[in-house]
Design goal:
Blueprint: H1 2-63, E1 70-72, E2 82-83, E3 86-96, E4 101-112, E5 115-126
């Protein structure tokens, strides 16, 4: 009789251990998925900052009268196109709306751990006019 009771406890222990191992395996899978989502979000945020910098550089070139209509590649430091595990490609298209207003479209594509992403922004660039009494 004693022996039968012990076998029932062993079966119960095996079932409990199986549930614990299954829960641990599931939590590791969820952790890995969270890491992938965090890397993708980090790359998307870096892409937003790269697009903002490209827009600022285009506006600066416009103020310096060195901007022409057409296609542009990345105007910043080349080292910024590779961050963490992501690589980026930035391209811009510029066209004239009026003498002081230009339309710029910037697209950012990235690759991180075999997954691709893309962003595209469009903005009007306005030439800054010096104000009276300001030194240039």
């Amino acid at each position: 009789m004693k022996r039968g009771k012990q076998q029932g406890y062993i079966l119960l222990e095996v079932v409990v251990l199986s549930v614990v191992v299954l829960a641990m395996a599931t939590s590791l899978h969820l952790f890995r998925q969270a890491q992938v989502v965090m890397q993708q979000d980090s790359a998307r945020l870096a892409g937003v900052f790269l697009a903002q910098e490209e827009m600022a550089r285009l506006e600066w070139a416009m103020d310096q009268d060195s901007l022409a209509e057409g296609q542009y590649g990345w105007l910043g430091e080349a080292g910024l196109l590779t961050q963490e595990n992501a690589s980026f490609v930035v391209a811009a298209s510029v066209r004239v709306e009026t003498a002081d207003i230009w339309r710029a479209q910037v697209s950012v594509d990235w690759q991180v751990n075999g997954k691709a992403g893309a962003l595209s922004y469009e903005r009007l660039l306005c030439r800054h006019q010096p104000q009276k009494g300001m030194r240039t």
